[in-house]
Amino acid sequence: DTGVSQNPRHKITKRGQNVTFRCDPISEHNRLYWYRQTLGQGPEFLTYFQNEAQLEKSRLLSDRFSAERPKGSFSTLEIQRTEQGDSAMYLCASSLVTGGSEAFFGQGTRLTVV
Amino acid sequence: RKEVEQDPGPFNVPEGATVAFNCTYSNSASQSFFWYRQDCRKEPKLLMSVYSSGNEDGRFTAQLNRASQYISLLIRDSKLSDSATYLCVVNQRGGGADGLTFGKGTHLIIQP
């Protein structure tokens, strides 16, 4: 499978715990994006990387959230001290810099904070 | 005013009918436009890009009206498999996908 891969697919955690999600983009894609989607809403942009550089962070990304892409390949999104409001689907997408704006999404990680 | 607005529906449409929905965007500097499709509990997938002159892909036709800042999607001869949420997506920067802003989606249900 050469698409965008996300792990885990589902995560249930207790409030206050830290969680980390992983995204493996399409191998030749140098841009990687994180989005969050809640029920009945469209995906909301969180942050993106071009290679290993994190170029933009949304206001939605509080200081409890951190994302890395250390070698310009896979990325991790960590949420510290999770809150119930963090419950959502976390989507990763990747694209090329050139060739249009088509972003390919992974299947997402569904986070439930109890 | 929200950046990208769509009627959430649901639109209940009999199989074989034609259905159309619109999307409005607030940023007049937006440069590129797309329709994505999202099935229940699945990831969004690109359905089609929307070009200034309008474009067609099989049963799907997309149009852009820059003056009124809306885009539309028309589905002809609808199939049961067209049931999904259709996300209007606007790129405010052009080039890469970093400027993508999604609408909340329009829920379409095709009934047999």
Plain-language structure description:
The complex is a heterodimer of chains A (about 110) and B (about 110). In chain A, the strands form two sheets. In chain A, strands 2, 4, 5, 6, 9, 10 and 11 form a seven-stranded mixed β-sheet that branches. In chain A, strands 1-3-8-7 form a four-stranded antiparallel β-sheet, with no helix packed on it. Chain A has strands at about 5, 10-15, 20-25, 30-35, 45-50, 55, 65-70, 75-80, 90-95, 105, 110-114. By secondary structure, chain A is an all-beta fold. Chain A contains no helices and eleven strands. The mean pLDDT of chain A is about 90. Chain A starts with a strand and ends with a strand. Helices cover about 0% and strands about 55% of the residues of chain B. Chain B has strands at about 5, 10-15, 20-25, 30-40, 45-50, 55, 60-65, 70-75, 85-90, 100, 105-110. In chain B, the strands form two sheets. In chain B, strands 2, 4, 5, 9, 10 and 11 form a six-stranded mixed β-sheet that branches. In chain B, strands 1-3-8-7-6 form a five-stranded antiparallel β-sheet, with no helix packed on it. The model of chain B has no long low-confidence stretch (mean pLDDT about 90). The chains are: A mainly beta (about 110), B mainly beta (about 110). At the A-B interface, strand 4, strand 5, strand 9 and strand 10 of A face strand 5 and strand 10 of B.
Q: What kind of oligomer do you see?
A: heterodimer
Beta-strand content estimate of chain A: over 45%
Distance between the termini of chain B: 37 Å
Q: Percent range for helical residues of chain A?
A: under 10%
Strand-helix topology:
The complex is a heterodimer of chains A (114) and B (112).
Chain A (H helix, E strand, L loop, with lengths): L4 E3 L2 E4 L5 E6 L6 E7 L6 E7 L2 E5 L7 E4 L6 E5 L8 E8 L8 E2 L3 E5 L1
Parallel strand pairs in A: 2-11
Antiparallel strand pairs in A: 1-3, 3-8, 4-5, 4-9, 5-6, 7-8, 9-10, 9-11
Chain B lengths: L3 E3 L4 E4 L4 E7 L6 E7 L6 E6 L4 E3 L2 E6 L4 E6 L8 E8 L8 E3 L3 E6 L1
Parallel strand pairs in B: 2-11
Antiparallel strand pairs in B: 1-3, 3-8, 4-5, 4-9, 6-7, 7-8, 9-10, 9-11
